[in-house]
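Memo to structure team: turn this sequence into structure tokens by end of day. - J.P.
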Amino acid sequence: MITYVENVKNTQEYNSLYEKVGWGKRNELSIKEALDNTVYSISAYDYGKIVGFGRIIGDKAIFLYIQDVMVDPEYQGKKIGTEIMYRLLDKIEEYKKDNKGLRVYLGASLDKESFYKKFGFKTRKEAGLGEGMVLLNKNKDSKLFNWEDDISSDELKEVKKVLDNDGIIIMPTDTVYGIACNCFSQRAIEKLFEIKKRAKYKPINVLTDSIEKMYMVVKDINPKEQELIDKYMPGSLTIILNKKEDVPYILTGGLDTVGVRIPNDARALSILKEVDYPLATTSANVSGDPDGIKIEDFIREFDGKVDIIIDGGITNLKQSSTIVKVEEDGELKIIREGSTIIE
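Reply from structure team:
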């Protein structure tokens, strides 16, 4: 039995239905804000399962807009969309009692115009109006992957494709979330600096999954440095080493050294193993803001600016890595205290 409930503001239900009808997926903070600003909505349920939805937005004085009318594909053809439309239009009639000149609009999906015409809607051309227009965003929403429980092999391939083509991702690590790109792509590194609003003189460290790939960016590793790597990696220690010539200077802030780390996080390591190069990685926050340990900490700042955001829940250590350098005399210099305590 299908039941209809007014003004439910459940972001997970909305996202689930939005994805089922083939419209993709939105981040839940944006959905929450949208639902909070909705004038009126109707949700259809089949014994507690969301199967249909529609809402009204607008000012209730001059215009209203019917938005997000959607029905689970398994339930289409059962008049659920029709019932949602009747209920939305009944509510609009209530608003019209106080505002006789209230105008009502909607945007029909391609090839769905005939469905809305039976409720009295006409195309703008039929109504003697100009073409409807849409301002396209330069930045579309970032794709959001949920890897808190499982790593999707298909999504992992998509991450690799993005990184191979100068894209930017945000991923969980054992310390904090990192914003990452191909460490040899000058174009991607420049985008990373711009997105993070990071000063160009500040170097960015790299993450990798193995000693072999570490040698793609470093000239040599002395015995003391190797000892630290063997003891603390994978883990939350970043070590500063002499860089190879082909490592872009924009990555290292003009220095001849580069910070490298092998993280101890299955999701980060799956990505690092998938690509053929280390990743330039810095904390996923606007410079000067606190480090992000969950996606809610930074998604407003970066949604639409990066290609993919991977949700891995709260990071394990909740603190940035310790950064060290072995000086020429063999002494160990701690550059930044972090989540690893050097014994």
